[in-house]
Amino acid sequence: MANTVMFIILAVFIIGSALMCVTTTRIMRAATFMLFVLFGVAGIYFLLDYTYLGAAQISVYAGGVTMIYVFAIQLVSKRTLQGLEERVKSSKMIGGGLAALAGLVVVGLILLKTGFVTQEIANVEVPMKEIGMALVGSEKYQYVLPFEFISVFLLACIIGGLVVARKEKEDKV
Q1: Residue 28: enclosing H or E segment and its boundaries?
Q2: Greatest CA span in the chain, whole angstroms?
Q3: CA-to-CA distance for 42 and 30, rounded, in angstroms?
Q4: Is the pLDDT reported for residue 87 higher than 90?
Q5: Model-level pTM?
Q6: Which of 17, 137, 153, 155 is the most buried (most CB within 10 A)?
Q7: Contact 33/20 with Cβ under 8 angstroms?
């Protein structure tokens, strides 16, 4: 019962923060709300007793990725961000709503066609060692290579941001 209540609290927190993230007009507030969403997801991992995944969620995503976003936001000149408010046209909002609805229908149909909704979930707990090996293993269906690719890609983005910031300073001199 307590787990269900805690899950509902975390779900409401995540959904509320996600909605605030996409509806705010201030970019730093959006990054902050994204941080709250990532912390909520980590809370769900901890609720499921997946402490490794929860800690990885906090350190990699909530810590690392959010800081990269904030770093990129700060690299953009202050003049660009001052008074930047974009008004969304109603036609774009309707189009986005229809696209989201179409995506929801497609996902629902796929879930019903594959029988995923009607399948009974096995009451077998996956050992943490198996999850850890899947995350850092290099064999088929293991994820060390995508993690390494993403880390190199993020490093290239940081270096590119520094080069852009340096060129802007040199142009002003």
Answers
A1: helix 27-47
A2: 67
A3: 19
A4: no
A5: 0.59
A6: 17
A7: yes
Q: What would the two tokens of residue 173 be?
A: 């001199």
* 3-state secondary structure at position 77: coil
Q: In this predicted structure, which of 56-65, 82-91, 141-150 has the lowest mean pLDDT?
A: 82-91
Rounded Cα–Cα distance for residues 15 and 9 (Å): 10
DSSP code of residue 24:
-
Buried-exposed string 94-133: b where 16+ CB fall within 10 A, e elsewhere: eeeeeeeeeeeeeeeeeeeeeeeeeeeeeeeeeeeeeeee
Residues 38 and 54: beta-carbon distance below 8 Å: no
As a whole number of angstroms, the distance between CA 57 and CA 168 comes to 34
Two tokens at 54?
A: 């929860």
Q: In the predicted model, what is the mean pLDDT of the chain?
A: 82
pLDDT of residue 104: 94
Contact 33, 17 (CB under 8 A): yes
The tokens for 167 are: 């060129």
